[in-house]
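ARCHIVE CARD
SHELF: 3
SLOT: left
DATA:
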Amino acid sequence: MIILPAIDIKDKTCVRLVKGDYATAHQVAESPYDTAASFRAAGASWIHMVDLDGAKDGRPVNEEIFERVARESGLKVEVGGGIRSMETIERFLEKGISRVILGSVAVKDPSLVKEAVREFGEKIAVGIDAKNGMVATEGWLKKSDVTYLDLAQAMEEAGVRTIIYTDISRDGTLTGVNTEQLGKLNERVSCRIIASGGVSSIKDITDCKKLDLYGCICGKAVYTGALDLCEAVEKAGEQSC
């Protein structure tokens, strides 16, 4: 299993939200570049980055930050937030981003997802973010009438190989991952599942590994010191500290 430490960008700073509420945004690190370097030093091979401004505006806002991290950190970078066109996807991939995450468009424009997967294959992931099992869009500000399981199945049929699942009610709360929903998701589809939201301790890492998930995203727990990133990488089986 891979561990993906997270950096969320708002107003060009590294922040974390609680339950996706933009009003709770607080700075957690000075520099995204130094933070990425520290993740690499701890043994991470991937980094998960989100353009919070882009998610709200429906267009990328902080591209230069993601591109510089991809260029300088030595990490594989996956990016989501406000990516709504083939042109944007292509531009990110050309600038060294390893995987592009499509979120709201999976609900609003599934044909774009199909086109992107045809063109770029496994470099495309879909982010499914849900409240009480129902998918939320537009930076989690709008709730849809689609269940996370139904959307996952539709994305699998569209050719998507990687799904990032976030239980919004747990994101940024340090209350543990939603193993029940993750287990159901992993049973429903054959896609590679990355868990996101609620990671609080090394137990969450071992729980996700027991579910045979592809990856686990760690945010607030790393910044608060509740989770040692090096230990998480080791427990996931990536490498020894």
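SLOT: right
DATA:
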Amino acid sequence: MSDFYKKILENNKKWVETSLASDPNYFEDLAKGQTPPLLWIGCSDSRVPANEIVGAKPGEVFVHRNIANMVVHSDMNMLSVLDYAVNVLKVKHVLVCGHYGCGGVKAAMGNDSIGIIDNWIRHIKDVYRLHSTYLNSIEDETERFNTFVELNVKEQVFDLAKTSIVQSAWKNGQDLTLHGWAYGLNSGFVTDLDVNISSDKDLDEVYQLKF
């Protein structure tokens, strides 16, 4: 057994001991169920930990992660998570969180073949195509990269708003608001991209304002 594997097993024991020391009923209470107010759709990047970023405890954030925090309408994994979060857990907020320095977004800016991930990155390339005139007008490569990260998040929020799951929730008067953030790896701070949408009317107004 590798030293790393032994270490993570030991870390688990220490975490349990620490949690029980602060609250003897910690795990018993967790096992009773979950009522998270937030669904987090984020990037799989290991440097972007959902709970830690927002200071949330276990049970407070329902999480879905994939390469470059994409909302793809044919992705049954994402749709299943969204459906459960909205219709069963009754979350009040769905947050798409991208991050500056995202490898998936960076790969979509080039033409190199990486492997099977090329098929996933195709969706990110579609976002670039939608905004190519604006993005190509940005001469500084870092600024263009950061802007692409932000535009990708915004487009995923808009795609989220168009899913039948979210549309049905709004039609039924459910309290549900969508948000978009970009996380700074080198600072720890998030940037609210001001795409906070809680109805079709909001969707139209925000889209016209942002594009």
